[in-house]
């Protein structure tokens, strides 16, 4: 195997490992259950705090881990750290986030759990995924 | 309060955090699902697609692995042993919700993972604003649909 082929395989394997860890995290935490998510958002009903623990633990772990990672000059498998550099709060960011929140509240699915739930595919979930992909294309058209 | 569910939430959250740290450490990328998948589908970036595809396969295989282990590690409300919960509504509702999630995360450059996990961990002002906004509209949406319109669990 040539050097560049080997490096490509390692990058692909690293991507798989990241996805697997993420999928395991969503499954163990119960985020693959829309009822858990909607239960968290339903503060006036029987409130379910689980999502708060998930987000809190994920943010703290990432906060600490990133600090260790950024002590290195570059990623282990080459290239550079690709971090967003934009700073301004514009209508596109806030409007997009507002629309996303409505869809999230209606379904209990954000993109990660929706895709991770493919193993339990149902007609409504398939509809959600197809519409989400159409939405990504539409966003690209609206604001290239 | 259901302490087991909360504990599983903490463990799952740590795993999600480790995924984000691993992806940054190895490939230098933000673990934002809408960005990873959305850009793969809408742009097919040359030389930058394989890891995205592999990430998606990993994402789907995580819950499948928990199911293969018997499902005891799942955390579905009221259904011990199950890993993937039922959708909160029918096809019509999901089409509307899916479109909003796709357009919204596309325009807003991120979702719960990119802004919520990675962005908050970087203390990025844009991600803090986006997370505050989508939490607010999600809370309002659930309040209006459940308590004002009286649409119960099934919406």
Automatic annotation (TrEMBL), chain A:
It comes from the Bacteria. The keyword Transmembrane helix applies. Keywords: Membrane, Transmembrane, Transmembrane helix. InterPro entries: DUF6691 (IPR046513). The chain crosses the membrane at residues 51-70, 91-109, 115-139. This is YeeE/YedE family protein.
UniProtKB/TrEMBL annotation, chain B:
It is found in: Cell inner membrane. It comes from the Bacteria. The chain crosses the membrane at residues 20-41, 53-71, 91-111, 123-144. Keywords: Cell inner membrane, Cell membrane, Membrane, Transmembrane, Transmembrane helix, Transport. It is a multi-pass membrane protein. InterPro entries: Sulf_transp_TsuA/YedE. The keyword Metal-binding does not apply. Its main location: membrane. The keyword Ion transport does not apply. Belongs to the TsuA/YedE (TC 9.B.102) family. PANTHER family: INNER MEMBRANE PROTEIN YEDE, SULPHUR TRANSPORT DOMAIN-CONTAINING PROTEIN. This is YeeE/YedE family protein. It comes from Vreelandella neptunia. The lineage of its organism: Bacteria, Pseudomonadati, Pseudomonadota, Gammaproteobacteria, Oceanospirillales.
């Amino acid at each position: 195997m040539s050097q560049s082929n080997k490096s490509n395989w390692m990058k692909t394997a690293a991507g798989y490992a990241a996805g697997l860890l993420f999928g395991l995290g969503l499954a163990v935490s119960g985020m693959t259950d829309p009822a858990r998510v909607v239960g968290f958002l339903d503060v006036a009903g029987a409130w379910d705090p689980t999502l708060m623990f998930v987000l809190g633990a994920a943010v703290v772990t990432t906060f600490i881990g990133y600090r260790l990672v950024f002590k290195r000059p570059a990623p282990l498998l080459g290239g550079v750290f690709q971090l967003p550099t934009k700073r301004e709060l514009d209508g596109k960011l806030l409007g997009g986030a507002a629309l996303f929140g409505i869809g999230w509240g209606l379904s209990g699915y954000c993109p990660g759990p929706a895709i991770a739930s493919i193993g339990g595919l149902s007609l409504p979930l398939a509809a959600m995924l197809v519409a989400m992909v159409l939405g990504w294309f539409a966003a690209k058209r609206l604001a290239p | 309060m259901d302490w087991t569910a909360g504990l599983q939430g903490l463990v799952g959250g740590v795993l999600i955090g480790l995924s984000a740290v691993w992806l940054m450490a190895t490939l230098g990328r933000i673990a934002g699902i809408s960005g990873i998948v959305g850009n793969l589908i809408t742009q097919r970036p040359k030389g930058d697609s394989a890891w995205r595809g592999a990430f998606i396969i990993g994402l789907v295989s995580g819950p499948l692995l928990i199911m293969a282990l018997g499902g005891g590690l799942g955390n579905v409300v009221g259904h011990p042993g199950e890993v993937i919960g039922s959708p909160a509504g029918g096809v019509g509702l999901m089409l509307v919700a899916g479109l909003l999630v796709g357009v919204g995360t596309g325009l807003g450059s991120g979702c719960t993972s990119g802004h919520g996990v990675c962005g908050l961990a970087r203390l990025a002002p844009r991600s803090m604003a986006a997370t505050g906004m989508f939490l607010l509209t999600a809370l309002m949406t659930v309040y209006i649909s459940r308590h004002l319109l009286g649409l119960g669990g099934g919406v």
